[in-house]
Amino acid sequence: MQLVEKIKNFKYKEEKIWIGITLTDTAASKICKMVENDKDMLGLYISIKRSGCYGLKYIISKATINKINSDDLIYKYKGARLYITFNAMHIIDGTKVDYIREGVNYVFKFNNKKLPQTCYCGKSFSI
Hints:
The protein is mostly beta strands. Helix content is 13%, strand content 40%. The longest helix has 13 residues, at 25-37.
């Protein structure tokens, strides 16, 4: 995925070099279908919140014009857009986002090899 734009006129305080985010074809296709079915949706919004057994978890929600912030980073792949909070990028960087089947459900799955610990249930992590 490529970083395609910054919202408004955000200026970096220092140069950041990131690997970026990887989105599978399956995940990109699902995001595109979600956007197609919801006229207010621009893509997926990914942030990190303090929660869970190990202290942090990914938060995924609809990106809408009212939700995105001026310092969010926008990644695009095959028409799908991911909006990432700037303050979470140092944790999210290098993450692979997939859309997989788990039992009878389909979920977005995050694979971030630089996270040293995840909880047993797989819903939270520490850095």
